[in-house]
Every structure is written in C-alpha cells, then in structure tokens.
User: Which sequence fits this backbone?
C-alpha cells in the first residue's frame, strides 16, 4: 500500500459509516454498554466527592456518574449521560432558544441576520420548518473564525454563565484544575447530517481538555490520530453523553459520519420539579433563583413540546474549550512559563 492509500484510511472509514446502501454494520462501533468491547472500553472512577451544584445544573450526583477510557486513544474519555431528565430538557432548550440569539453568531448570518432564530421559527404560531432546518451552528464566547481558524479579542462576547458552570463541574469531577470555559461551538445535526474529518487546534491552550456534550439523537463518532493515515475508531455517542478530548486525543482527527435514531428518550424521564431549599455557591452564575426557575419551567410537557419535536429528529452537540492559558485574560496578554 503506498502513502496516498494510507492517507485515505480515515476517509475510507468515514465513507463506510456514512453509507446508507448498504448500511454499515455496528459490530465494530464501540459502546460503553457493550460487554464485547471490554478491552477497548475501560471503566474508571472519577472524583467521588460531592459537588452540591450538580442537581441545580440538571446533573446526577458524582457517585452515580459512569466514566470510561479508551486505551487505544490516550486522553479520550466518555461520561455516560450524567444528566437528569429535566437537565437534558434544560440544556436542549438553552441550545435552541437562547444560545443562537444575538450577539452570538450563527451560520444563518451569511444570508440574513436574525436576532432571535427560535422565536422567528414560531413567530406566527406555526413552525417555519425551512428556517428551523437552516441552523447548523452557533458560536459562544470567543467566536470561531471558520476562514482563518484564529480567535480574536475583537470577536468575543460574554460566555454563558450556566455553560461555564456546567463545564467547571465536569472539570472538577475529572480533577482538571484551573479549567475555564471560554469558547463553544454548538452544532445542530439532522438525520442526514455529517461532520467531516478535522482537528481542533485554534486555541492558545491546547493542554486544556475539550468537552463535548451531546443531546437528542445518537451519533457515530470517529477518532483517529494526528495524521489521516491512522485508522479511526468508531464510538457510539448517545443523548446526555460527555466526550472529553485531552492529552494526545486533543489534537487528533475526528468526525461524525452518521446520525442514528436514539433507542430511548431520556429527556422525558425523571423531570421532577427542583426545590431551592439549600442553594449552593456558584462560581459563575450570578442569579441562582433564575436558574431554578428555568429548570422547573421545563417540567411542563405542553410548553416543552416544541423542543421535544426538534430533538426527535435532530442531535445537538455543545463543544466547549478553554482558549487562553491560565495566566491570560485576553489574547494580547503575555504567556508566562514557570521554570
């Protein structure tokens, strides 16, 4: 096999799983719930100390979280759905109703600037399905420049408090010290959507992990190596799962060749009202009472029906990353290295 053929290894696997005729076999897709993959998917134990913020962010307590590593991909981890039902509803709704609002940037801006995409989709009381399907991504915090792949302090808005808090809790569980969420890309997939092979390398700080939160329909996630000649592994990602790319995995090629129908609807389970008797101390959230109210309004099935209809045929993926080094407040700050 010559070098050109080697370079096609990632694309060959991508095309295999993307195919509909014939449909790909799921036999080699790694699932944390499949006992046939015990050598390739290994359970771990994260931070067992309690964090009283979890319940108020729609998460189960740390003791019930299930963490896995992938020996073939050092630095790659998966937390199997640590969210409650109401938690999934909260984050799905945030991604649809709030995060695409201005001043955040979306792919639709290339055609027309819409201040409130979700509201515009239902402005006359009926669903504008054409506009609904147009949203492919929105960016938060440091806005990713798709042309230059370079961040700029002039293209930065306030990062969402709740998503920063959620990321801080996940970092605490994984014992990553000093982590700060500063940029995010929220991807919106439909059943025929794909994401081609790429690496995430625009951040100044490539030592900090990347957190990937998934909601809605399932997906096949491919992770290879730092060259496309590396044959990638296929991993099943389901609603509520958190993928963590750190160390070597942080700069490896990855892709999503196929969206799969979810086997269950975890956003419809355990959607109980949250009571704010003992409010925890938050690091980023300034108005905890508003957080509780936002969580609890999602227990109303009638109100939440529009969001349910969306995720029944779509997948939402929040990719959160730290841009700066720990001693920087903006890109112009010098980087100091401890000797």
Assistant:
């Amino acid at each position: 096999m010559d070098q050109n053929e080697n370079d096609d290894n990632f694309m060959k696997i991508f095309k295999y799983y993307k195919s509909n005729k014939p449909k790909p076999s799921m036999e080699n897709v790694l699932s944390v719930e499949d006992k046939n993959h015990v050598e390739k998917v290994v359970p771990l134990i994260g931070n067992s100390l309690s964090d009283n913020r979890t319940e108020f962010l729609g998460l189960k307590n740390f003791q019930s979280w299930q963490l896995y590593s992938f020996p073939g991909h050092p630095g790659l981890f998966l937390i199997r759905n640590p969210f409650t039902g109401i938690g999934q509803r909260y984050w799905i709704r945030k991604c649809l109703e709030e995060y695409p609002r201005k001043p955040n940037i979306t792919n639709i801006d290339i055609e027309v600037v819409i201040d409130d995409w979700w509201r515009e989709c239902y402005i006359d009381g009926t669903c504008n399905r054409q506009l609904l399907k147009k949203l492919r991504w929105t960016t938060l915090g440091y806005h990713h420049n798709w042309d230059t792949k370079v961040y700029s302090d002039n293209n930065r808005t306030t990062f969402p408090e709740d998503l920063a808090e959620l990321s801080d809790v996940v970092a605490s569980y994984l014992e990553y010290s000093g982590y700060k969420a500063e940029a995010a890309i929220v991807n919106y997939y439909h059943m025929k959507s794909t994401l081609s092979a790429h690496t995430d390398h625009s951040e100044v700080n490539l030592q900090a992990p990347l957190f990937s939160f998934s909601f809605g329909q399932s997906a096949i996630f491919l992770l290879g190596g730092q060259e496309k000649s590396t044959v990638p592994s296929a991993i099943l990602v389901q609603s509520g799962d958190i993928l963590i790319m750190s160390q070597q995995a942080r700069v490896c090629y990855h892709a999503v060749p196929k969206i799969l129908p979810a086997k269950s609807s975890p956003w419809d389970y355990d959607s109980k009202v949250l009571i704010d008797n003992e409010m925890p101390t938050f690091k980023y959230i300034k108005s905890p009472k508003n957080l509780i109210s936002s969580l609890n309004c999602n227990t109303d099935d009638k109100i939440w029906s529009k969001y349910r209809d969306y995720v029944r045929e779509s997948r939402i993926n929040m990719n959160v990353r730290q841009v700066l080094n720990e001693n920087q407040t903006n890109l112009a700050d010098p980087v100091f290295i401890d000797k």
